[in-house]
Design a protein that fits this description.
The chain has 84 residues and is an all-alpha fold. The chain has helices at 2-5, 14-23, 31-58, 66-83. Helix 3 crosses helix 4 (66-83).
């Protein structure tokens, strides 16, 4: 029960995450699997924000724009294609 009370990701509530998984066809969900998904979302979000921040600083701006975020995800997808 202790693992269930720890929330790593506050952006997506566990109830909503379970609902998304069930609508995609998953009937039962293990607590460890939910924790793993939350941690994965959290890590990807942190990496995306750091990359967008670097892009913003390169262009000499103090305001984060959607262009920076799109560029960060584009570069991340490009790097993943090279790894395969």
């Amino acid at each position: 029960m202790k693992n269930n009370k720890i929330k790593a990701n506050t952006l997506i509530k566990r109830k909503k995450l379970k609902q998304i998984l069930k609508t995609s066809g998953i009937k039962r969900i293990n607590k460890r699997a939910i924790n793993f998904i939350e941690n994965l979302i959290n890590r990807n979000l942190i990496n995306a924000v750091q990359s967008a921040k670097q892009n913003m600083e390169i262009h000499g701006r103090k305001t984060l724009r959607t262009i920076d975020i799109k560029e960060a995800f584009r570069l991340k997808n490009k790097e993943e294609n090279f790894e395969i």
